[in-house]
Structure formats: structure tokens, C-alpha cells
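Design request, C-alpha cells follow.
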């Protein structure tokens, strides 16, 4: 699995010029064999693209400091090897520097956008412009770790060249892009490519929705803008996949539709205020879809509703499948948190649900997501060790009514109601679905259960209905709820 800024997935920054989907047939014909030259556009945009140099103090034994070598510089590895591995380690606190990219969005006010990781931990931030001038960042107006964005403030002596956001939703795979950035400390570098894919999930967070490009992107390009062929910013470059740290043609950028909303809130509030429903959701897998009579890749299944949350007040229940949010189809589980996060706090939003086979409409007033809320939980489960049970065996599960002894044995809260799993046949479909001893079946076939016989009756009812699996709602000792579709054969 890829993780942000790991050995393979490296945070970078690059500026790219992306073709506009709305440019029309004339532009398509002009660039049928690739653009003849992007020099006029690069010249027009380069003054708004900046190099960002940061420094911070790191502690060490007393002595002489290391020579300052910019992060990603051609001889960085040589200096690191010489001074760190051959007895030349410096003594005393020293300053280390790093370089990234950014772009000006308001030349009069001196507002600059970059990645949060570019300036994270920095004690000093200098902005270097294309003409050789330099300004010191006076204030970090705000930062958002979830989208990896930051908004900086400088005081210009005269209005700076700036750029505007364009609609990333209108960019298509195959549109031309140009990168202007600060790779390896070489400011003002330009590269050209296309959009390779959209809506990429690189497992860096719950709101992953990256643009992918094959434009040459390298270390030091982090925070640089992506431009379409009209010179509008349609993304902020953030990461690459690379086994070496250099470009292999797979780079990622936060789309401008997301960036513009985040930056607007940072300007207004100094923080980001994301929408919140108060539901824990999970993917509608093929087997779960079959038990609910749904097409695959449809909606987000509500596993639990937070008491007192907007979803609770709107009447949402565990087992509901959210099909549409604010007029937009929810085609995947991960799609819903992105829609909710971008909704305005306090906004009344229409929902379309599937509840026990029937479509229903509801309206929810979007709340505000706090830092410790988890609105995008894809509930996982782990296989556990078998217990020594004495209950009834159903669909490969040995089940018993809850008792004080069993609650103590499995560390189950008194509020948990249902039938406890004491043993799982390792050859059964239930085992392959991750059910384990100590799990409590709360519902079977969307009916509440309190005895093993209730589970058996629900299984028989599902069989008579011609279903191939029974849908169980399961709660663990931590109070986490999830739905599991267990095949009946």
C-alpha cells in the first residue's frame, strides 16, 4: 500500500500546464501533435511562481556547523555521506534548510499558496521571486494538514504578478499540462506533459482525489501550481511515485476545486471548516450489494450513526445506504466523505436512501467536522483466536446469548445487545469475512437478534427469499459497528 512521502510515494512539487477541456475544436486541432511551443505562456506565468526556502534549528553536540546544502541538491547525497558517515558529524545546534515551490494568488495583498509539508516546522520562510528579489513571510495565515495546503502572507513593495484558479472539473485525461517549479533547487524549471488520470486515491487521507500527470516532477516542486492552457491554476503539486526520488512520470496534484475552497476558508477563518454528518460508513461490496438487491459500486452503507449528530437528527439509521447527496450520485463509499466535507456548514442537504429495500428521501443539516471526528471510517476487522464455546452453531458460527460471564470474558460493554460469537469454523465463509470470537451479532437480515435461534430464523428467511448471503450487523468490544454479508453456502 502506498503511503504519503514513503520510499515510493514522495512529496514533491511541480507546476504543470494542463489543457483546458473547454478550449474547443480549434485548440484540439492546433495541438493534435502536441503544442509547438509553450514559451509565451511560460513567460507570462513564471513571475507568479515562487521558490520557497525554509530553515529550522536542529539540535546536536557543540562544534562547527555543516555546509548548507539545499534539500534535493545534486551533491546532497555526497555531503550527507561524507559528514554523517565518515566522522565529520558537526557539533552544536545548526540550521537546516529545504526548498519548495508556491504561487501568488493575490499580488496586492501578497498571498501565496504552497503545500503544508513545505513549511511544516519552519522557523524562517523566505520567498524567492523569478526576478531575483526576495521577501520574508510575515505570517502563516492558515494551514490544512488533511489537504496538505498552506496560505502565506508577505508584504510586497509593489503589486506582485499573480494567477487565478480555474475549474479542475473541466480538465480531461489527455489534456496538455506544463510544470514550472523548483526541482532540486533549480528555480524556474519548465516541463510539459498530459493528465494521466483523475480522482486518484493514494491512501494519504480520507479526501484523496488527486490529479495524476506524466509531466516531469521532482523533489522541490512541492506546492507549485498546475496550469491549464488558459493559464489558470487547476491544481497544487504534492507527491510522486518513485523508487529513487526522481520523476518516473507519475505525479499527483490536489485539484483546484478542492484547493480554492480550502484557501477561501483559510482567508476567512484561518482554518478549514469541513462538513460532517456523523455516520460511520463502509463499502457496499458485491456480496453486500446482493443481499440488499443493489448494483455493485452503489452508495455508502451506514454502519453506525453518532447519537445527537446531524445524521441522527435527520432520522438516518444503521443499514441505510446513501445513494445521493445534494443531488449527486454516491457511486463509492469514499465519494461520500468528499461530498460532505465540501458542503457548507449549516446547509440543508437532500439525501436519497435505500432502507430495507425501499428508497426514501431525507434532509440533513450539515454539521461541522472537528479534528477528532472520523466521518470516513471504512470499518475493518481482524481474525482472532478461537474460544471454547458451548452454544449453537449457525453458518459456521458458534453463538451464545450474552451473559455477564461472556461480557467479562470478551470485555463487552453492558450497552451491547445481541448474540456473541464464541467460535468460528476456519473453513466457513464466516471466517473468510473476518468474524471472530467476541464479536456480537446485533442484527441478522436487518432484524434485531438476542438469541441464537433469532439468527437461525433470519437465515431461513433469507434463504426462502432466494438470497445467496445473509447480512449481519456486528459490533466488537471497542463498540465499532460494521455490516458483513456471509454467504449461505
Amino acid at each position: 500500500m502506498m503511503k504519503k512521502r514513503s520510499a515510493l510515494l514522495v512529496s514533491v512539487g511541480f507546476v504543470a500546464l494542463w489543457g483546458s477541456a473547454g478550449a474547443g475544436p480549434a485548440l484540439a486541432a492546433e495541438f493534435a501533435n502536441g503544442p509547438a511551443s509553450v514559451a509565451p505562456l511560460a513567460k507570462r506565468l513564471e513571475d507568479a511562481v515562487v521558490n520557497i526556502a525554509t530553515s529550522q534549528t536542529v539540535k546536536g553536540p557543540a562544534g562547527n556547523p555543516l555546509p548548507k546544502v539545499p534539500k534535493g541538491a545534486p551533491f546532497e547525497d555526497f555531503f550527507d555521506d561524507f559528514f554523517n558517515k565518515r566522522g565529520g558529524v558537526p557539533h552544536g545546534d545548526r540550521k537546516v534548510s529545504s526548498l519548495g515551490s508556491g504561487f501568488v494568488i493575490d499580488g496586492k495583498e501578497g498571498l501565496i499558496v504552497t503545500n503544508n509539508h513545505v513549511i511544516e516546522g519552519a522557523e524562517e520562510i523566505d520567498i524567492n521571486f523569478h526576478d531575483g528579489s526576495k521577501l520574508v513571510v510575515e505570517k502563516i495565515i492558515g494551514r490544512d494538514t488533511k489537504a496538505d495546503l498552506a496560505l502565506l502572507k508577505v508584504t510586497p513593495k509593489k503589486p506582485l504578478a499573480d494567477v487565478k484558479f480555474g475549474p479542475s472539473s473541466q480538465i480531461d485525461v489527455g489534456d496538455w499540462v506544463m510544470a514550472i517549479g523548483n526541482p532540486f533547487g533549480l528555480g524556474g524549471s519548465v516541463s510539459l506533459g498530459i493528465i494521466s488520470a483523475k480522482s486518484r486515491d493514494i491512501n494519504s487521507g480520507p479526501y484523496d482525489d488527486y490529479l495524476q500527470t506524466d509531466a516531469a516532477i521532482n523533489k522541490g516542486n512541492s506546492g507549485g501550481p498546475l496550469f491549464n492552457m488558459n493559464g489558470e491554476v487547476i491544481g497544487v503539486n504534492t507527491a510522486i511515485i518513485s523508487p529513487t526520488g526522481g520523476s518516473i512520470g507519475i505525479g499527483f496534484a490536489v485539484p483546484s476545486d478542492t484547493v480554492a475552497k480550502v484557501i477561501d476558508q483559510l482567508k476567512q477563518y484561518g482554518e478549514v471548516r469541513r462538513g460532517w454528518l456523523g455516520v460511520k460508513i463502509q463499502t457496499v461490496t458485491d456480496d453486500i450489494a446482493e443481499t440488499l438487491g443493489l448494483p455493485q459500486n452503489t452508495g455508502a452503507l451506514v454502519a453506525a450513526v453518532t447519537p445527537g449528530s446531524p445524521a441522527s437528527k435527520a432520522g438516518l439509521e444503521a443499514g441505510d445506504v446513501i445513494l445521493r447527496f445534494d443531488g449527486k450520485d454516491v457511486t463509492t463509499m469514499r465519494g461520500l466523505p468528499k461530498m460532505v466535507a465540501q458542503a457548507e456548514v449549516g446547509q440543508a442537504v437532500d439525501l436519497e436512501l435505500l432502507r430495507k429495500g425501499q428508497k426514501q428521501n431525507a434532509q440533513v443539516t450539515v454539521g461541522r467536522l472537528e479534528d477528532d471526528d472520523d466521518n470516513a471510517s471504512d470499518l475493518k476487522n481482524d481474525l482472532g483466536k478461537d474460544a471454547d464455546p458451548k452454544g449453537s452453531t449457525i453458518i459456521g458460527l458458534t453463538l451464545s446469548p450474552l451473559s455477564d460471564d461472556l461480557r467479562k470474558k470478551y470485555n463487552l460493554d453492558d450497552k451491547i445487545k445481541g448474540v456473541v460469537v464464541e467460535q468460528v469454523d476456519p473453513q466457513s465463509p464466516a471466517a473468510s469475512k473476518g468474524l471472530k470470537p467476541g464479536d456480537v451479532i446485533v442484527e441478522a437480515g436487518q432484524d434485531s437478534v438476542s438469541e441464537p435461534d433469532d439468527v437461525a430464523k433470519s437465515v431461513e428467511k433469507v434463504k426462502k427469499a432466494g438470497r445467496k448471503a445473509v447480512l449481519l450487523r456486528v459490533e466488537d468490544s471497542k463498540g465499532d459497528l460494521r455490516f458483513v454479508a456471509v454467504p449461505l453456502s
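Comment from the thread starter after seeing the answer: thanks! Residues 141 and 151 are 6 Å apart (CA to CA).
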